[in-house]
Amino acid sequence: MPTPNDIRVDSWESLNAELFQDSWQAALGRWRSPYTYRGLADVEYDLKTSLIRLGGNYHRLEAVLLRNFRKYAHRDASPGDSLWNWLALAQHHGLPTRLLDWSYSPFVALHFATIELEKYDCDGLIWCVDYIKVIQWLPPVLRELLQQEVALAFNVDMLSRVASSFQELDSLSSDPFVVFFEPPSLDDRIINQAALFSMMSSPTTVFEDWLTDKPELYRRIIIPAGLKWEVRDKLDQVMVNERTLFPGLDGLGSYLKRYYSPRQP
Q1: Which of 15, 41, 76, 154 could disulfide-link to 181, CB 3.0 to 4.6 Å?
Q2: What's the pLDDT score for residue 62?
Q3: Does pLDDT of 11 surpass 70?
Q4: Dihedrals φ, ψ of 129, to 5°?
Q5: What percent of the chain has pLDDT over 90?
C-alpha cells in the first residue's frame, strides 16, 4: 500500500542519493546513516513476519515452535542459552518467528530487492527505518540500558538483562514497541549481510501498521521494474551477490545460475 513517504527513483544515481540521504553527521564529521534497510522484490509485499504468515492461532504457537526447535536442535547449536540467542538462531534457519531481517547496508537491501528474476516485471521496494529515532518509542528501562551501554541497538546479552521471556518483554509497556537487535555472529552469512533484526513486543502487531502514524521514522524507496537490471548488474560488479552474502557452495551455485540466466524482455 502506498504511503506519503514513498520516493520513486528513476536512475542508479538518484537511487544512491536516496539510500544515503541524511547520512552526514556534522557532530562526527563523518557519513553515518541512521537508517536500517530491508529490500523487497515486489512493492506490494508487506512487513508481516513469518510467524503471522503461518496463519491460524499463530500467536499461541510461537512458544511451541521455539520450544520444539530447541528440543531437536543440536545442543551446541546456540552460542548461549538465552531466549534471544535461540530466537535469532531459529530465524536464521527458517523457523517462523516474530523477527524481521534488516541490514545496516543499503546495498545488501538492494540485493534482496533484485534477487528474484521472476519479479522483474514488478517494482521493487527498499524500506528505510531510522533505528535511532525508534529509540524514543522504547520503554524507559530499554532506553536507559542503551544509554548506559553507549549503544544504538541491542544485542542478545543486553536484552537478557531486562527480559528473559516474551511475556516479560511485552510487560515493559502497555503499548506495542519495536526493538532492533544485532544477532550473534552465528556464521559468515550474518556477518557479511550486516544483519539486524526487528522485533515487535507483541507477536500480532505488524511493523508496517505500527509505523503508520510515525512518518518521521521511515522512508520507502521504490525501484521501477525497468531499473532492476541495471541495479542488479552493478551490484554484481561491486561483489554484492549470493556468492559473498551466502558464503559456501549453495550461495555460489545460486549466484552462477542467476548470473548466467538470459535477460528477459
Answers
A1: 154
A2: 95
A3: yes
A4: -115, 130
A5: 92
Residue spans per domain, the chain: 6-24+32-259
Alpha carbon distance 265, 250 (integer Å): 28
Burial 120-157 (b: 16+ CB within 10 A, else e): bebbbbbbbbbbbebbebbbeebeebbeeeeeebbbbe
SS3 130: strand
Cell reading at 159? 536484552
pTM recorded for the entire structure: 0.94
DSSP 8-state symbol, 263: P
Q: How far is CA 158 from CA 91, 164, 191, in A?
A: 19, 11, 19
Sequence length of the chain is: 265
- Kindly state the greatest CA–CA separation across the chain: 55
* Residue-level pLDDT at 141: 97
Mean pLDDT for the stretch of residues 120-126: 97
154 forms bridges with which residues in the sheet?
181
Quote the CA–CA distance of 128 and 208 in Å, as a whole number.
Answer: 12
pLDDT grade, residue 77 (50/70/90)? low
